[in-house]
Structure formats: structure tokens, C-alpha cells
């Protein structure tokens, strides 16, 4: 019983540590967040005070969904002087070109904003897996539409399993954003510019867990 209790206490301690963990500032001095309506209510000045220097807010998902908290998050970041960017969550089940047009109708053109981000993750609700050539052609057209609207090259956030299947870091000469919970990512054909290091950080003033990221020098150069 004592051994089981010790394991339980160690597990609780480890969980609490994980909820507060972020990469060391001396190695990664530029850190920030990406949020969506699932993050819940955010007190942005508190989040900035916790070390977030930049923020990305999901604007659109696929060709039909607008994030309900996008405008509030977008405006809040401007009010506190935080570098802000908008993100589109890609759907493999809908036209990339239409997705790009929908993003452009929701996100205002702002040359001071961070480069727009497109997130590629598999979704259990979408079983479609297009052929690579067709996907790359569609995404290229989407990128052209978004870049014509925003005036800056996009950043591609690519999950490891999507990269394994489609090799998007080879297909597009764009800075890219990797994901690896607590562990530095080692996938992709080129070095990443942004790393989502945790999707479970807890910060007072934020209702839900926060996606915490680090950016290398020059990640947001335009």
C-alpha cells in the first residue's frame, strides 16, 4: 500500500509539473500561445504577464466554420500590444481553395500582423485522405489566395503523421511549425521555425489548457 501511495503521489507531482512546464527561456527566448474557442475565456494581460510574447488565434476551420472567439481574441491581443496572428485549421474533406477564400473573408488584412498560419492535423470526423499530388495542388492554390490577401508568406503547422504521409515540408518552401509535447521535434525535411512544446499548460487567467509554443530567431521575419 505504501508503494502504491508513493506512485500515486509521484504521478500527481509529475502532472502538476507538466501543467506548469515551458521550455527554458535562456534557450528559447521567444515564446507564445495558440488559442481557439476550445481554450475558453482568456484574460490576455495575465497571459502576457506569464511570458507569452505572441499569440495565434484560430479564425476558421475548414470551409464552413468560424471560430466563435476569434474576433474577441484578435482584438484583445491588439489592445495589450501583443504580436498577433490568425490561424486556419485545414480540412482534408473540403476544397482547399474554398477554405482559403473563407479565411480571407474572416481575417482582416493587417500588414503588422504575424504571418497567417495553416494547421494540418488529422481529424477523426474527416476520413478523406486525398492523393498527395491533388492535395499539394489544392494547398498551393489556397496558399496563393491567402498570401495575396495578407501580403506575407504563410507558416504551415504540420503534425508528424501528416508530414509522414504527405511530406509537406518538401512540397512548400515556407517556414513551418512542428508539434512535440515536451520533446523537441525531429521530423520534417527542414528545420522548424516554431515548436508547439505543450498543449496542456495551465495559466491563471485562462479557462482551459494553453498550447504553448517557442519560436526561433527570424521565425516571423517578413
3D architecture notes:
The chain has 222 residues and is α/β, with parallel strands linked by helices. The chain is 34% helix and 22% strand. It has seven helices and nine strands; from the N terminus they run αβαββαβαβαβααβββ. An eight-stranded mixed β-barrel has the order 1-2-4-5-6-7-8-9, surrounded by four helices. Helix 4 packs parallel to helix 5 (132-150). The longest helix is centred in the N-terminal third of the chain and has 19 residues, at 2-20. It starts with a helix and ends in a 7-residue tail after the last strand. Residues 2-13 have low confidence and may be disordered.
For this entry, give a set of tags.
222 residues, alpha/beta, 7 helices, 9 strands, globular, disordered N terminus
Q: Based on helices, strands and strand pairing, what is the structural class? A: alpha/beta
Could you spell the SSE succession in H and E letters?
HEHEEHEHEHEHHEEE
The geometry reads as: globular
Largest sheet: 8 strands, mixed, barrel
> What portion of residues belong to β-strands?
15-25%
Distance between the termini: 59 Å
Number of helices, counting only DSSP H or I runs of 4 residues or more: 7
Report strand order across the widest sheet: 1-2-4-5-6-7-8-9
Average pLDDT works out at 92
Quaternary structure annotation: single chain
How many beta-strand segments? Answer: 9
- Runs in which pLDDT lies below 50 for 5 or more consecutive residues are 2-13
Radius of gyration: 18 Å
Helix content: 25-40%
